[in-house]
Design a protein that fits this description.
Elements (H helix, E strand, L loop, with lengths): L21 H10 L14 E2 L11 H6 L11 H14 L3 E5 L2 H12 L5 E4 L4 H9 L3 E4 L20 H11 L6 E5 L12 H13 L3 E5 L3 H11 L8 H10 L3 E5 L10 E5 L2 H14 L10 H14 L2 H20 L12 E5 H4 L9 H13 L1 E2 L1 E3 L1 H4 L15 E5 L7 H16 L7 E5 L10 E4 L9
Parallel strand pairs: 1-10, 3-4, 5-6, 6-7
Antiparallel strand pairs: 2-8, 7-8, 9-12, 11-12, 13-14
Length: 465
């Protein structure tokens, strides 16, 4: 008999959750324009909107807040953060930013010229937005298997080397400033990249004088999957695997709000001194001094500790295990989800969940809204709404995957909460034909999924018939 395990922590403080009744949830959803991003936090029972900045910090991190050095320049807390990044990630130079998109902004402005191409293993919303705003065209070079939700492939985040080489041949290496490699790949379902693939990609880039810049936001989760799925790494620590992973890159953007286990913060790291010098000059314009980059000293203290805590093998094993706990229950119940279960979230396949709703009627947005209406669980759409519009034609980008992301915050919920989520989804699946599609009634010009508003495509304006 396999022994059950529990969380590798104990609870010292609790936050009371508000539990609305059916009518109250309906009113809150309508007020939010059927966009889960616009629902007030106090009206949410279990919040699976994102794992970004929603981590529960450790006792040591909370204690570190009290010793933060808030000096405007040369903060002691900055040097602790810089040391942690160099120790664990191995890069030579570090620029702090207020969060990951601050680092994306700096990188895009520093490295992209008008007319460039930036290949990547599937887009991410803010990353692509910064690339396009600076004149680049994003090119998806992920393997085809990533677009098949039912395919159980161990490394769906891998770059297709043939696609990548074709892009180099077609546009010329001089038009590709860097390859953006996400580890793991969020919109593919939190899927990892293999060490073998990272090594091969880096070799191609070195041969063609193209930089490899990682989106390292969930790199610790990627390292854990390598430990599990590549035989040569089974006996290595996550820490050692992570260091080798990052050695196959020239730098990274990092949102500290995920694997660094804090509520705010990020950084841009690199190995090239000239790029670092330019980044130091630019960060002053957009973020703050190079020794705080938009962060308080106390936040840098917490992030430095979080970097070390994140590579604890017991922590990351529980982290991945809790996501799988929810995912496996849904698989056992016949719910269509992206396989294999990824590192930070379970992704519902909205096309297969709601086959009666056409993709242009926004099935993922409708399913996320229906989940909140059913139980007060907040998830988010990752489909046609998130994909935005083609910058040339103005037409909707139509992704092959139309997903609802159930994103699990780190060290926040117990498996009992996951059981509640599971029960609600199974209940919805049993009455799925009652859910109707949505139409967008307000569309922001960029990153529309944050602030768009919707209305049900039903005569009476109800989401469920």
């Amino acid at each position: 008999m396999k022994k059950r395990t529990a969380e590798p922590f104990k609870i010292k403080a609790v936050e009371t959750l508000k539990m609305l009744n059916d009518e109250e949830r309906k009113q809150a959803l309508e007020k939010a324009g059927f966009n889960t991003f616009l629902i007030d936090s106090e009206d949410v029972y279990i919040d699976l909107l994102t794992d970004s900045g929603t981590t529960a910090m450790s006792d040591k991190q909370w204690g570190a807040l009290m010793v933060g050095d808030e000096a405007y320049a040369g903060s002691k807390s900055w040097y602790k953060l810089e040391k942690a990044v160099k120790d664990i990630y191995g890069y030579k130079y570090v620029i702090p930013t207020h969060q990951g998109r601050g680092a994306e902004n700096l990188l895009s402005q520093l490295m992209i010229n008008e007319g460039d191409y930036v290949p990547g293993n599937m887009y991410f919303t803010t990353t692509r937005a910064h690339q396009e705003l600076n004149g680049a065209t994003f090119v998806d070079v992920i393997i085809d298997e990533a677009h098949d939700s039912l395919l159980d492939h161990p490394f769906k985040g891998n770059v297709d080397l043939i696609k990548f080489q074709k892009l180099i041949d077609d546009v010329g290496a001089e038009k590709i400033p860097y390859l953006c490699l996400a580890v793991t790949v969020n919109l593919a379902g939190g899927q990892p990249v293999s060490m073998k693939n990272m090594r091969e990609v880096y070799e191609i880039c070195q041969q063609n004088k193209i930089s490899v810049m990682l989106d390292a936001t969930r790199c610790v989760e990627n390292a854990y999957f390598i430990k599990e799925r590549e035989d040569a790494y089974a006996d290595k620590s996550v820490k050692d695997i992570l260091k080798e992973m990052l050695s196959y890159s020239d730098g990274c953007t990092m949102s500290g709000k995920k694997d660094c286990l804090v509520n705010i913060g990020g950084f841009l790291a690199m190995n090239e001194e000239e790029l670092y010098t330019r980044a130091r000059e630019m960060v002053v314009l957009y973020e703050g001094m190079p020794s705080y980059g938009g962060l308080s000293g106390r936040d840098m203290e917490a992030m430095a500790l979080g970097i070390y805590e994140s590579i604890d093998d017991n922590y990351i094993s529980h982290r991945i295990g809790q996501v799988r706990y929810l995912g496996q229950q849904l698989i056992d119940a016949g719910i269509p989800v992206v396989k294999p279960i990824g590192g930070h979230a379970v992704f519902l396949d909205a096309k297969k969940f709601l086959p009666h709703i056409k993709q242009e009627e926004l099935p993922a947005q409708a399913l996320a809204a229906a989940l909140y209406l059913d139980s007060g669980v907040r998830a988010m759409e990752r489909g046609i709404v998130s994909a935005g519009r083609n910058k040339v034609t103005g037409e909707n980008n139509v992704p092959k995957l139309e997903l609802v992301r159930l994103t699990i915050p780190r060290r926040v919920y117990t498996n009992n909460h996951m059981d509640v989520v599971c029960d609600s989804i199974i209940s919805l699946y049993e009455k799925r034909e009652q859910i109707v599609g949505l139409k967008m009634v307000y569309e922001p010009p960029t990153l529309r999924f944050f602030n768009a508003r919707f209305t049900p495509l039903s005569v009476n304006g109800e989401l469920m018939s």
